[in-house]
Fold these 4 entries.
Entry 1:
Amino acid sequence: MHFLFKLFKWLLTLVILGALAFGLYLGNLSYEELFNAPWDRILGIENHRLDLGRIHGLEDRYGWQRVMVPSKDGTELRGTYIETVKGGRKAVVLLHGLYQNRSMCVPYISMYQDMGYNVLLVDLRGHGESGGGHTDWGIHDVEDMNAWVDFLRSKNPSMEIGFHGISLGAAMALIYSGSDEGRHMKFYVADSSYGNLLELGRDKIMTYTGDSRLVLGMDVLSPFMQAAMFFHTGKILSDVDPASQVTHMTSPVLFLHGRADTLIPPSVAEELLADASGSPKNLYIFDGAAHTMEMATNGPAYRSVVQKFVKGLS
């Protein structure tokens, strides 16, 4: 009997270790899929990340400066710098959405120039002309934003810097806002940000596949996927979730969202507002606007809301 009990314990240990090993294997596959999945099809968005003709034409026409900075890991990041006021001490960094590039931010330039801001449009890692190869989901974006802040401070060491992001760019700005360096920025404007990466993935994969078992599988694998993420990057999901990082921010923040947004519902913006620790903090929801379409739907109102918020910080 004693021998059978020891055999049972030994077999049970092997089963548990085997299950853990298999879970870690699947978790690592899930981590890799986070970067390699066809998110444009899953989320139902168009892929324009290599459509750079517009921004190149504007750079050539107006003499805007094409710039490159290396991130901490050596990845080359590309952008466009527009000097509104020579030697000015106010600048805003504009961050585009998923599968876009810095061209997307052109409509937002003039409202900041009207307030005397120099403007920096950047290609997020894995987009446009920046290196990286794929969407980074915030793994390196704190370091990337630090590189851009250093670039702006090289123009003027006392530069006051704000961030204005759209969709993925808004999420990256909010992730940065909770970092040690990001807490010292002048302001953040977050247009159509998601809150939680896993929740975004669960909802959209369910819609894309129609298979609820995949969602259950994601829940089961989440601890193993996070273990793989920590092994590869030293970070876990809360480190790259805007909803977690806004609880650490101290800068003023303005959330913008479309009431007709079906990709990321406006309730996400309301939750981000409630959780944000920055002050002051405000939210404006645009009636009739779909995802990231607030400016296109009601440009004058968009400009007014943003300018009122930014001018109120002076």
Entry 2:
Amino acid sequence: MENYYNISWLEQDKLHKTSILKRLFYFFSRPLLSIYASQFLSSQALKILQPSLVLPGRGMPLETRRLWGAALCKIKEATILVQGTGTGWDVISWARLKPKKIIATDLFEFKDSWSEITYYCKQSLNVEVEFYQSPLENHSFIKDESIDLCASDAVFEHCQDFKSVVKESFRVLKAGGSLYASYGPLWFCAGGDHFSGRGGLQNAFNHLLLDSEQYMKYFLSFLQNNEDFQSGGRYVELDLFSRLSTQEYCDIFQEVGFQIKDLILQVDHKSLEFKAKFPELFKQLSNKYINKYEDDFLITANLVRLGKPSSNK
């Protein structure tokens, strides 16, 4: 795909680092942030989804998410499966926790960075890493019940056959194993296609409001000549979206057999701003998607910890 470029894994790793002071600030302020953000969701949504926290888009830095995601397993003895790793930069953040082994996979191959990261993790962190190119719904090279923790960030919203991905995660996890995932923007929020919003806030829900012909005209008019390979432009061209709401994700988790241990919701400030500035357009969303709640247009991301029941239960 010659019109796309890759951001180096080193640059991505640096971009996602958060200072200790900021992490401490978020640690102490999260309860207050949750109270603030919860006011934007309906009491019905809060009752049905029962989130552990509701956050205003911030409050869970990468380092915090890693510790939170790994808390349900014995990380020093764990084999981690990093799903949808892309260039592999996220593997380093898991390797810093010093697990026993990391297996990382992606639909596309990033051979050069994968080789460099494998070497870096072994030499600098003494953690063995293996990379494989494979669709997430088919990891036949991984044995049944051989993984302690499945982990992913910004991946589940791109799985076209999401139920199969969850089934495969369930298969490879050991009894009593856990799954951590953060995913979003969700399809029904502002910029849910990772593209709408280019050209101004009034375009934030174009992927939902425009018909296919109008949307393609909008897409082509704002597509750049040279985009990040892991960007909205590429995702739209490949149609890499699950198109699910928070409740639909949770329903699939439970249908496959997972127990939802924790669910954190993130409320989108752009969606809230759009609702305030363009009430008529926001009303069109509700009229067009009558089977969705207003909350679905406001929730931008989910963070989940799931558990695979122990075999003796």
Entry 3:
Amino acid sequence: MKIRTLLALAASGLGLAANAQQTEDLRIVRSDGSLVVEMGIDLSGMEVESNRAVLLTPVMVNGADSLELSSVGIYGRRRYYYYLRNGAGMLSGPGEMSYTSSERPEKVAYCARFPYEAWMNGASLHLHRADYGCCNTLLDERSGLLGRYDEPVPLEPVLPTLAYLRPTAEQEKVYSLSGSAFIDFPVNQTVIYPDYRRNTVELAKIRATIDSVRSDGDIRITTVWLKGYASPESSYANNTRLAKGRTAALERHIMQLYHFEPGIVRTDFEPEDWAGLRRYVERSELAHRGEILAMIDGGDDPDIREARIRRTYPEEYRYLLRNCYPALRHTDYRIDYTIRRFTDVEEIKRVMKVQPQKLSLNEFYLAAQSLEPGSEEFDEVFETAVRMYPDDPTANLNAANTALQRGDLKAARRYLDKSGDAPETIYTRGVLALMSKDYGEAQLRMQEARSLGIALADEALVQIAKLKENETK
């Protein structure tokens, strides 16, 4: 640290005005474990009588701690030669800069180096003057403040302007709900009996899914999609009949309940769920799991494949028939629907509190625009958005920005891992590196962001350069 000052030590500080001193260019710096004090001391006008002496001593003081530095002595002729003849050394001992009053320089270039100690941080530098008469009699003494030493405070990074990204507005908000139901039919039949075995529960699953959106005035169902499957036992032709007929039976059942407009309910079927059988075998611990998987993956006719498994591994086949095949007789369903668009910010905020799943990312962004950046409400909008859209790059980027705003670097890093590689994301990774004090990485990211058209990077690069320069001091 440098302190540059021109300080006049007035008569009230050091006695007679004629004997006032000036110091110039005071400099106190820490270097290699030492503290160095440098200054110019003006001795012009220091007239000292022949039998007297004046001792100027800089002193570092901080509370109860103090350290006297080497002194500057100005002596009258008789007093100066008295010390020389008697070999007693000068007033302050070795290291003193000593001059006769008549031969003193106009200005002394003063320099003292001494080991740095912790208490010196915040210490004041005073100049103490002591006037002596015959026989070292202390006639007068005064002190004046020259300056102060404070350790340089390391520069801390300042959060740059954050780059929030507006999501693309959706023309239509399309969503879906899906699941599987295991409707049980009597052997070889395609008629649904709602009270047969677990059908009450399984049909209720489909109905609950439809009801969850159908009763909401903000939602319009566009498609109820059904796809029926049969298990591989029996012939492929018969299973085709069963899968097709059972899917049609479920379609009629739903239409009787809801009376959807024509074209809303759509159906498909797959005679035998070989993909489901393969998943089950792959996760199983069957003794011939590998061989059975090879048969499933073979290109043979489905009936030939099923018969080969039954003949070759009868024990495992019976196990599959009992534990796997019932689950292969199922109907997958999906409810496609649209949600109306919200444009009123206050309505968006109300919906966010109770049904945030209804909002698009752009609607979340609209709500945030009405709030103070960095406020709890502002952060809540983007945190809720990323919960609703956990894999969306834009949602994660904006959530990373709110995390940086509140100083949560760990959360910001987690969100940025899922933010893609848009120019704004690269810039925000630079912000994260800056706030983590990884200035080399921050500089690289910001330079890349600038090359991609992010003008905010210019301001950040200026700050990074200053921080890197400060580290080298």
Entry 4:
Amino acid sequence: MAHLYKSRLQNHVQKKNIAFHVYTCEMQGPPHSRLFKACVTIDGATFKGPEFCSTLKDAEHAAAKVAFMALSPDGTQEDDSLYKSLLQEHSQKKGLPLPVYATNRTAQPHIPSFASTVEIGGFILTIF
């Protein structure tokens, strides 16, 4: 899940209408074995990754995690759109058609119940 924090942070700042965030990087070590530590600045606040990483991508995700945990109301709240995005990306990588969603409302008007389905390439999953 750690590799998803940049996306989660981007979704969070967009929903909150916070100014675009900027990543900066610190490097150490010789050119053949560089280590990276990233910072992300959001709306004037800077969040630094906790350790040096072997790739810039991992360093940016580490900094994004620190920022997301600090800015998110409960630090662990999941974003439903994240899972839809992941499913779409997975479908595209596997050469499958995009997911198709449908939700039906059933039961009494004052106590609604919902059943959702997602279909990908003929496979249908229903959640009640």
